[in-house]
Amino acid sequence: MEPTTTAQYLPGDYLPIVIQFAAALGFVVFAMVVTHLIGPKRHSKVKDASWECGIESKGDARAPISIKYFLIAILFVLFDVEVIFLYPWAVNFRALGVDGFVWMILFMGLLLTGFYYVLKKGVLKWE
């Protein structure tokens, strides 16, 4: 019988990752510095005015927006991302067996518990 061997990673094995990270960081710093140095530096009242699709802005841009809008947006993203986990489970349903089914029932229970909590708090009631 052959003894099992475990892979031994040396610090030098991570050198390509460190080099790639340094190159990416260097490019970002280089691009930020160069664009700051060669970018236009002329400012005027007309040039610095904010325009939206060629229409002059009117009023304050800091108009109050209902917190309900943000709550619904965050809840949509939260539950949408959780529902995305159902697809790989459905594709591998038979391979996961009973154990996978039990874990998905637990996951769905937690998901529905959170959804029930949101409904009970009245977050989705728009007045």
From TrEMBL:
<dbReference type="InterPro" id="IPR000440">
    <property type="entry name" value="NADH_UbQ/plastoQ_OxRdtase_su3"/>
</dbReference>
<dbReference type="InterPro" id="IPR023043">
    <property type="entry name" value="NAD(P)H_OxRDtase_bac/plastid"/>
</dbReference>
<comment type="subunit">
    <text>NDH-1 is composed of 14 different subunits. Subunits NuoA, H, J, K, L, M, N constitute the membrane sector of the complex.</text>
</comment>
<feature type="transmembrane region" description="Helical">
    <location>
        <begin position="17"/>
        <end position="38"/>
    </location>
</feature>
<dbReference type="GO" id="GO:0005886">
    <property type="term" value="C:plasma membrane"/>
</dbReference>
<comment type="function">
    <text>NDH-1 shuttles electrons from NADH, via FMN and iron-sulfur (Fe-S) centers, to quinones in the respiratory chain. The immediate electron acceptor for the enzyme in this species is believed to be a menaquinone. Couples the redox reaction to proton translocation (for every two electrons transferred, four hydrogen ions are translocated across the cytoplasmic membrane), and thus conserves the redox energy in a proton gradient.</text>
</comment>
<dbReference type="InterPro" id="IPR038430">
    <property type="entry name" value="NDAH_ubi_oxred_su3_sf"/>
</dbReference>
<keyword id="KW-1278">Translocase</keyword>
<protein>
    <recommendedName>
        <fullName>NADH-quinone oxidoreductase subunit A</fullName>
        <ecNumber>7.1.1.-</ecNumber>
    </recommendedName>
</protein>
<feature type="transmembrane region" description="Helical">
    <location>
        <begin position="101"/>
        <end position="119"/>
    </location>
</feature>
<keyword id="KW-0874">Quinone</keyword>
<keyword id="KW-0812">Transmembrane</keyword>
<keyword id="KW-1003">Cell membrane</keyword>
<keyword id="KW-1133">Transmembrane helix</keyword>
<comment type="similarity">
    <text>Belongs to the complex I subunit 3 family.</text>
</comment>
<dbReference type="Pfam" id="PF00507">
    <property type="entry name" value="Oxidored_q4"/>
</dbReference>
<dbReference type="GO" id="GO:0048038">
    <property type="term" value="F:quinone binding"/>
</dbReference>
<feature type="transmembrane region" description="Helical">
    <location>
        <begin position="69"/>
        <end position="89"/>
    </location>
</feature>
<keyword id="KW-0520">NAD</keyword>
<dbReference type="GO" id="GO:0008137">
    <property type="term" value="F:NADH dehydrogenase (ubiquinone) activity"/>
</dbReference>
<keyword id="KW-0813">Transport</keyword>
<keyword id="KW-0472">Membrane</keyword>
<dbReference type="GO" id="GO:0030964">
    <property type="term" value="C:NADH dehydrogenase complex"/>
</dbReference>
<dbReference type="GO" id="GO:0050136">
    <property type="term" value="F:NADH dehydrogenase (quinone) (non-electrogenic) activity"/>
</dbReference>
